[in-house]
Amino acid sequence: MPNEQKDKKASWLWYLLLLIPFIATLWPPFYAGAEPTLAGMPYFYWYQFLWVIISAVLTAVVYFATKQK
Asked: How far is 66 from 6, CA to CA, in rounded Å?
């Protein structure tokens, strides 16, 4: 029984990774600018696009880490 509680607590901590993209995009004045550009794309756009990709990777990591065996 103690192992089940320990596993539940460990899997709950994986979900904290999902907060990272939320916090990174929460405050638009941080990334509301044109510089630096990436391949001609203003910072405002590529920063958010980068977080879409990072969010997908983090979601996959959390999914596989918390998947029931």
From this structure: 13
